Amino acid sequence: MTELPTNTAADRVPLPQEAWYVGAASSRLTDAPVAIVIHGQAIVLFRDSEGRAHAMHDRCPHRGVALSLGTVSEGQIACAYHGWRFDGTGRCRHIPSLRPEQPVRTAPVRAYPTVERDFYVWVWTGKGEPNGQPLPIHGFDRYAWLQGATALACEAIMPIENNLDICHAAFTHPHMHPQWFRAQAAGFQPTRYELATDPGGLTVSAPGTLLRFDLPDRVTVGSSETFRLVLHHVPTTPGRCIQHWLLQREPTHEPAAPIWSDKEPEILAQDRHVLESAQRAYAYEGDAFEQSVEADATTLSARRSIRLASQGRMEEAFSGNRSICVLS
Fold first, then answer.
1. Is 231 a residue whose pLDDT tops 80?
2. Where does the Rieske domain lie (predicted)?
3. I need a surface site. Which of 91, 128, 241, 303 has the fewest CB within 10 A?
């Protein structure tokens, strides 16, 4: 297939900027700096001498070199070009070329509020002070987990909507998803889904189905008692995002770090294949071609919530319930 352009000036449905986003899994941030991008902002993560995670603008104010190319020394990040060192607040603490009597006078590097919770390093990308703390993962300490992340060539709204889509699994996930097996055995049957919206997101439920969306980017598939897949969708550059996934395993009485996996789960790879195809269409043609049916109510509700949050209009969000009857 011909590769169509995927770089766009901006995402069609940008996620809120005044929010907490996953910067990296805790296990991925060790002794070396880690470069990430959130909302087009180049950010470097590193740990200080006490193991605390910090996030700063990934650019040295001296000559613009990415600080992520440097090293961590004495709990500070040192630029690979001239050795300027910065602490976790972004303040320059040492310039090797200065004589001892010369003071260090430089503008600080922008530091981002950072929190480590549920074995993720979270970064606040807003301009103001953080609005509360990152949303905890319910019951995280009661289970073992498998953890990973995948770069997607599509904007973040697309995997969010996909994971709330109630009718794609029978087509996109052959031999993988319960909906596909049901359709093979009995054909498509009338199914009633309950959609409950609230200012923080929405919940979709039906027999054998439980989906939850939490602003700004989390989708939880399943319940904490049986199966659960927790997904965060971090916008990087226009038309691109990172999908951080966390798969619940067996119950545990001794909380431990999730097991990291570099292998993308097959069911997520199947989704990625169709989403990246759709991104090419949106990038090339825009979205005026879109046509929706009743089954799209779940995804359109999430889209509306994100738009209101991005525009600072959450007071217009409403709580309510509706039933959707579709063949699935």
1. yes
2. 20-123
3. 128
Q: Please, what's the b/e burial string for 45-74 (b: 16 or more CB within 10 A of its CB; e: otherwise)?
A: bbbeeeeebbbbbbbbbeeebbbbebbbee
pLDDT at 1 over 90: no
The residues, any chain, with a CB within 8 Å of residue 262's CB and separated by 6 or more, are: 148
Candidates 83, 130, 86; CA nearest to 108 is 86
End-to-end alpha carbon distance in the chain: 30
Sign of CA pseudo-dihedral 213, 219, 224, 228? positive
In the numeric block, the tokens 């260090």 are attached to 104
- For the chain, which domains are there? 20-124 (2.102.10.10), 140-327 (3.90.380.10)
User: What are 148's two structure tokens?
Assistant: 């990973």
Q: Give the Cα separation of 154 and 285 in Å (integer).
A: 15
